[in-house]
Amino acid sequence: MIYPTTRAIGLAALGAPVALFCGVYISGVWPLAAAWGAAVTFMVVLDGLLAAPRRRLEAEVTAPALLSTTAGSGALTVRLKFGARGPEKARVAIQTSANLGAARDALTIPVVAAQGIATFALKARRRGEGVIERLWTRWPGPLGLAYKQHDVADVARFPITPDIAGVQAEAARIFARDSVFGVKLQRELGEGTQYQTLREFQGGMDPRAVDWKQSARHRVLLAKEYRTERNHPVILALDTGRLMSEPLAGSPKIDRALNAALLLGYVGLKVGDRIGLFAFDARPRLYSHPASGAKAFPALQRMASKIDYSSEETNFTLGLTTLGGELDRRALIVVFTDFVDPIGAELMLENVSRLARKHLMLFVMFQDDELEGLARAEPLTPGDISRAVISDTLLRDRQVVVTRLRRMGVEVIEASVDHVGPALITRYLDLKRSDRL
To answer: In angstroms, rounded to a whole number, what is the distance separating the alpha carbons of residues 143 and 145?
Structure first.
């Protein structure tokens, strides 16, 4: 379709005073005023026909593979190819989804040799799936009186993930601090449970590892050597219900839980385990089977970007029962959740006790610094006393639930926002070294 430009509208408007003057004072020449409008219309149509044809336009869109909520901007590149005959300039505009923004949503670019490039700076507003919903391209004809327009819907989709750069930096810092790689290389042989090989017994080796039968056969004192078992399934189970969507230190709890989960996933893949993801609120939302290898972490990122915020109450019975049915062997289940009182947590405890009979459970919860601050604050007014009493009651109720979880054999981590990631990795590595997985 052909659209008039501002220049064409201005030219047509210039004929209006002339037509009015001729209609009032020179009645014999009024057809000339009408001819002016017809001439402008003809020139607009002609300019549109002379413009670069729409069917020859090719728009190549290069979107980021993924975008992080804290890693700055990403770039969306639109390369236009008009074929043999192109305009001198073109205007490109985009429409993005609500969780994605652009520094400028429309750009005017020069076209050289029938090609032009437009680059949009994108900024993630929140986690989810970023969508370039529509792309418009318009270009004028040689006279500048008309332009043609081409639009494409659902141009690109890519995941908007939590702080991946921070995850990798934190994992590298933990590895460097704890010398995980060095420790694993030293302790991987001799302290595991999976048989590796026979070797000649040497001083310092565990005498219980001597294989007397093979030693008698070979007439050399031989000892069994073991290696730490790998390939354990680790399930990152995220409660995405109403309580986890509430803010904590400026960000929703679920976003902070995802950062810790991805940190554990990154480390777990590095040490050879298989990582899966499970999310649930009123019903199960997604499940990915445990996977390992170099491609598993990008897939984990994409799955994490699909986890949305929810206002529904968490159904632990349905969520944990569904997860238990998906697992066919013993696994480490890391549950990221929150609760308010023992009555609301009763169903959670009942279902956790069933899973804990077969699987190793690890609960991760955030300390509520604001609540603890209210409980410890010096009371100056009657209102301060009421808030302190209520806060202390909630904290004691929470500890009742934590104590019951530990009595079931469930591992529990309760740490502040800044320390939950390192605490989780430390506990995970301790569980591996003690062969509890």
So the answer is: 5
At 239, list the tokens.
């409660």
- The mean pLDDT value for 338-367 works out to 87
What are the Cα distances from residue 86, in Å, to 3, 4, 118, 143? 17, 18, 15, 13
Closest C-alpha among 172, 334, 164 to residue 238? 334
Residues 6 or more apart in contact with residue 290 via CB below 8 angstroms: 233, 234, 235, 274, 275, 276, 331
- For residues 24 and 168, give the distance between their C-alpha atoms in angstroms, rounded to a whole number: 79
Burial class, 230, CB count within 10 angstroms (exposed 0-12 / middle 13-18 / buried 19+): middle
Which of 177, 258, 189 has the alpha carbon at shortest distance from 422?
A: 177
Give per-residue pLDDT as tens, 192-228: 455 567 778 777 677 877 888 888 888 888 887 765 5
What is this structure's pTM? 0.70
Q: How far is CA 356 from each of CA 290, 322, 348, 353, 361, rounded to the nearest angstrom?
A: 19, 15, 12, 5, 6
Could you report the per-residue pLDDT of 91-117, keeping only the tens digit for each?
A: 999 999 988 888 899 999 999 988 999
State how far the alpha carbon of 360 is from the alpha carbons of 233, 326, 346, 353, in Å: 11, 15, 20, 11
